Amino acid sequence: MTAPIVLPWPLRSGLEAAALALFGLGDQSSADFLRPAGEAALVSPDSVSWRVFKNPLSLFIGGVAAVIMELAEPRVRTGVWEHTTFRIDPIRRLRRTGLAAMVTIYGARGTAQAMIARVRRMHDRIVGSTPAGQAYSANDPELLNWVQATAAHGFLQAYHVYVRPLSDLERDRYYAEGSLAASLYGASAATSEAALEMRFEAMANQLERSDILFDFLGIMRSAPILPLPLRPLQSLLIRAAIDLVPHWLRRILGLTDDALNSFEAEVVLKMGEFADCFVLETNPAVQACRRMRLPANYLYVHR
Question: For the chain, N or C: smaller number of CB within 10 Å?
Fold first, then answer.
């Protein structure tokens, strides 16, 4: 087991800034992970989810992979593209999405429930039709199930591939842990790897290639999302995300030429392993541990 790293101040300060960008937590005004003291989250500190979501690098990669898969579904794609700010302000949109993920996992239960209720009310207003004439609603359970499944898959796979392999039991536990949050969002979680695969199979004939996906990837490669020292790695991390999309779906989407070579995959793995070993006070995982009266390094020694 790799020991947690406590970094000297100059290096820690730089990495704190990088983690804020990777987590999308530049503005935490709507979330306080330190309070109320002692209040539990939707999932417990000894969960697989708390370990997986603490890693800023794998969250960034997994989040991009999830959006790639979401955009394969035409109703989800149209809703995202027409009713969010991805096209005009991708950085702000990514930060809001990152904050929502952190609150769902690490926020106090009351804070998470209130945030999810706001999201659902906002989704009530998102309705329309795709260019092909399919009606959609953001609170359609089938679409919510697809978004929940792709997000769960993306975050888990990123940690499993680029940080630390997880056992079959751990992977099934992780999916089961998402049930409560999914139900609050109006979705039904796939509670095991097998159930997730069945959900993917059931949606396969509805998924399609789209120019919007390539517009999204272009934005992700060119927008100044990461801090300047990490900017040269941004394109590599986007390709690492593409690698997490199931091969059959990559063929549908026309993403078969973006695979990492073995050297590049090893570079991303080393970065992910390193990011999993240092304790940053700005990390919501660390702050949530403090709220629960656990040591700041709890998730770094209980792995």
Answer: N
Asked if the structure places residue 240 within a domain, the reply is yes
Residue 1 falls inside a structural domain: no
| Residue 170 to residues 46, 84, 110, 176, 189, Cα–Cα distance (Å) | 12, 34, 27, 10, 16
What is the reported pTM? 0.92
Residue 217 lies in a domain: yes
Asked if 19 and 89 count as a contact pair (C-beta separation under 8 A), the reply is: no
The helix or strand, by DSSP H or E, that contains position 239, with its residue range, turns out to be helix 234-244
Residue 2 in domain: no
**What is the H or E stretch that residue 127 is in?**
strand 127-129
- pLDDT tens per residue across all 303 residues of the chain: 445 555 455 445 556 666 666 555 555 555 799 999 999 999 999 999 999 999 989 999 999 999 999 999 999 999 999 988 777 777 777 778 888 999 999 999 999 999 999 999 999 999 999 999 999 999 999 999 999 999 999 999 999 999 999 999 999 999 999 999 999 999 999 999 999 999 999 999 999 999 999 999 999 998 888 777 778 889 999 999 999 999 999 999 999 888 899 999 999 999 899 889 888 888 999 999 999 999 999 999 866
Residues 45 and 159: their CA atoms lie apart, in Å, by: 17
Pairwise CA distance, residues 152 & 237, whole Å? 18
**H-helix or E-strand spanning residue 158:** helix 141-162
Domain count, the chain: 1
Pick from 150, 132, 143: nearest CA to 69 = 150
Backbone angles phi, psi at 53, to 5 degrees: -80, -5
Domain ranges, residue 86: 9-28+37-298
Report d(CA 169, CA 192) in Å as an integer: 9
Contacting residues for 46 by C-beta, under 8 A, at least 6 apart: 302
